[in-house]
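Side project, low priority. Logging it here so it doesn't get lost.
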Amino acid sequence: MSIAALLVLADGRFPAGGHAHSGGAEAACEAGRIHDAATLEEFCRGRLHTAGLVAAALAAAAALGIDPAALDEAADARTPVPALRTAGRRLGRQLMRAARATWPAAELDALAAAFPRGAHQPVVLGVTARAAGLGAREAAQVAAYESVSGPATATVRLLGLDPFEASGVLARLAPALDSVAAEAQRCALRARLDGPGALPAASSPLLDIAAQAHADWPVRLFAS
């Protein structure tokens, strides 16, 4: 496992398109559910244990070499809201472009050919991790981290939150991030034997409803 590759993939400056998405933070800020560091932490913790866990497990399963088409179908089933399906595939397409330029691999080429409009981002992330020489645990860690770092960064822009406070939120979430990544890896290992149905399907209805409403806003700072 290459620590350097892990850092590159998890770096917010990696051109995977995540900077244009708030992970639901923009709608939550508008609704008043996020208004300071404490409420940002509550939001991120909830997102980590729902959408973050699902994404981490899908990424870990893809890193293990489970059929990405089956995993993409599983991701679709776990994404009931059209706006989030669109965002997930858009992010997957952008990550694919960056990944193929950074870690050229036949598996990435095959996935790009199979999903010209983009596979779901966690699936692409897992295949990318595999191409970069990373394992299931590392893929899960990146996905889990992305699930909270995006909203934290977005909230700095949306509310003018002190970036030191946002970084403190992420630091306090570190033990939970490790726990979610470990659980995601365990689920992925079960899925290798029992199929994608063994992957978690944690739901977050408020995130789903807010995401669909956000997509209809005439003016917004973030794509999702």
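Brief comment: Residues 24 and 211 are 6 Å apart (CA to CA).
Revisit when time allows.
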